[in-house]
Amino acid sequence: xxTKTITTATTAVLEELRNRIGAELTRRELAGREPTDERQxxxxxxxxxxxLRLEMVKCGKERCKTCGRGEGHGPYWYLYxxxxxxxxxxxxxxxxxxxxxxxxx
Length: 105
Ligand SMILES: [Zn+2]
What we know:
Layout: H1 2-8, H2 11-31, E1 39-46, E2 50-57, H3 65-68, E3 73-83, E4 86-93
Antiparallel strand pairs: 1-2, 2-3, 3-4
The structure holds zinc ion (ZN).
């Protein structure tokens, strides 16, 4: 039944479905991760292809005063998504571009 639905669906519908599956797999993988001191999640939002996370990040440099105070840098937004079955993150910046927000329910 699902196979027939797939073969008759439009390309646009299939691409949307692929995005939503990828976004859901990303959400589940992130939810299963242990929190780390290097990246502290301030806020999380669903995006069309994955999950947006606002994070405070430790740079790892030994002499960094900011990280030495325990603050980390940011907060900055990162887009987490799956590429070739692997979870990847991409730096977005201080604000989120409109095209990355929302995935329709
Ligand atoms: Zn630092």
